[in-house]
Design goal:
alpha+beta, lpxc deacetylase, domain 1, five-stranded mixed β-sheet, 7 helices, 22% helix, 31% strand, binds zinc ion
């Protein structure tokens, strides 16, 4: 039976914000059941729940907030939380973005493993897709399809770049915590050197470096150690989509399929799903095994 989960102990991490370049501290604390995932800007005393209604920007990252206050780059932390099925947590942050860490979800995985997980008394709700919901932007596409039991990602990217084309541009991933940790969580965000220079000129990506992203020039990967997976680029897209899907507020049972999608299209998809309640149902697994294999976050 799947129950709601929070973390056992408070944990803290410090890192740089990829856009501001500032040092930011993030603190995760246990939260009561039925509370959800809540971000708190401790520098200005504003609470921002992790939900689709709070999305204010999807261009370079997923940002939540309101007219005055925002928290950017939430997707890698949300992805790590979803990997352990942790759906209740308070996230204090003293700046306008979650630290980028190494550009993947792995540092947050270590943090959650040291925090440990606690199962709560309420059953966990799953959103089971009953029929396909699809969104497009030009030639880009994202959809959620019914899948009998489980959560699958089938993601294709299409970059005209020799390094990306040298590896598979499509990845299919069936979720379990262990497979997420092994195959997805270490995939880093990536960017192109010419875009990076443009972003810096716009006062963005001030904290960006080879320490927190794969950087490509026209021909090659500039990071000395190369890639962590041959298909790290498309795997990072899965990591991002998994985090963005958690904005639905439920664990998804279905197949996420996407072509050339990013945060913006996944956000459109999440909105389209919530706007069509006939396409899904909420289910729980009271008294029977849940189809998603969430493992405990075990103390390191
Ligand atoms: Zn990302």
């Amino acid at each position: 039976m799947a129950k709601q989960r929070t973390i056992r102990n408070q944990v803290q991490a410090q890192g740089v914000g990829i856009h501001s370049g500032q040092s930011i501290c993030v603190t995760l604390s246990p939260a009561p059941e039925d509370s959800g995932i809540m971000f708190r800007r401790t520098d200005c005393g504003v609470d921002i729940p992790a939900g689709v209604q709070q999305v204010v920007d999807t261009q370079l990252c997923t940002a939540l907030g309101n007219d005055q206050t925002r928290i950017g780059t939430v997707e890698h932390l949300l992805s790590a939380l979803a990997g352990f099925g942790i759906d209740k947590v308070l996230i204090d942050v003293d700046g306008a973005e979650i630290p980028i860490m190494d550009g993947s979800a792995e540092p947050f995985i270590f943090l959650l493993q040291s925090a440990g997980a606690v199962e709560q008394s309420q059953v966990k709700q799953f959103l089971r897709v009953k029929r396909t919901v699809r969104v497009t932007q030009g030639d880009k596409m994202a959809e959620l399809n019914p899948l009998e039991n489980g959560l699958r990602f089938d993601v294709t990217i299409d970059f005209d770049h020799p390094v990306i084309q040298a590896g598979p541009q499509r990845a299919v991933f069936d979720f379990s915590t262990m497979s997420y940790l092994k195959d997805i969580s270490r995939a880093r965000t990536f960017g192109f050197l010419h875009e990076y220079e443009q972003l810096k000129a716009m006062n963005l990506a001030l904290g960006g470096s080879l320490e927190n992203a794969i950087v490509l020039d026209d021909q090659q990967v500039l990071n000395e150690d190369g890639l962590r997976y041959p298909d790290e680029f498309v795997k990072h897209k899965i990591l991002d989509a998994f985090g963005d899907l958690s904005l639905l507020g439920y664990s998804v049972l279905g197949e996420y399929r996407a072509y050339k999608a990013g945060h913006s299209l996944t956000y459109d998809l999440v909105q389209a799903v919530l706007a069509d309640p006939s396409a899904w149902e909420l289910v729980n697994f009271d008294g029977c095994p849940a189809p998603l294999d969430y493992q405990w976050a075990v103390a390191a």
